[in-house]
Specification:
The protein is an all-beta fold. The protein has a single domain (2-143), classed as Beta Barrel (Porin). It is 3% helix and 77% strand. The chain has one helix and nine strands. Strands 2-1-9-8-7-6-5-4-3 form a nine-stranded antiparallel β-sheet, with no helix packed on it. Strand 7 (85-106) and strand 8 (109-121) form a beta hairpin.
């Protein structure tokens, strides 16, 4: 789930990969969220990378924190009464700190819960705002390959 000002995106997909060097690592992430309101379909894509710290222990819970920098791309489309689709899109720089935990469920996999704050930096001359504050809540499956 992704919440941006004035809209909530209830569905999304997120894929990330990390190279770990002990408790620290580098992570890259690609995400997508979709929502519809008043016959307007909106898609938000994100691409980011940055450092991640993971508290790997002998226990079943591994907490982590990360900070990603990258791009957020929003696309909005509406179909007119004449069956013509009108689309608008924009891409902006983003910073996304977040935290979560992996609950180990088996050999090489776990359930992940994560909360992220995303600051999208906007061009005030074009949008009237200097930035946008988003919140993302993520629940999914993480495969652990190392």
């Amino acid at each position: 789930m992704l919440h941006v000002p004035d809209q909530t995106f209830p569905l999304g997909l997120n894929v990330d990969g990390a190279a770990n060097f002990g408790p620290t690592g580098l992570v890259a992430e690609l995400g997508w969220a979709v929502g519809e309101r008043d016959e307007v379909t909106s898609h938000v894509f994100n691409l980011g990378a940055g450092p991640r710290w993971t508290g790997r222990t002998q226990g079943k819970v591994w907490p982590f924190v990360q900070v990603l920098a990258g791009l957020a791309h929003a696309r909005v489309s509406v179909e007119t009464a004449e069956d013509i689709e009108v689309t608008s899109s924009s891409t902006h720089f983003m910073l996304q700190p977040g935290a979560g935990a992996v609950f180990l469920a088996g050999d090489g996999w776990g359930i992940i819960g994560q909360v992220d704050y995303r600051r999208v930096f906007l061009d005030k001359d074009k949008t009237g705002e200097s930035g946008e504050n988003d919140v993302r809540v993520f629940i999914g499956v993480r495969f652990i390959l190392d």
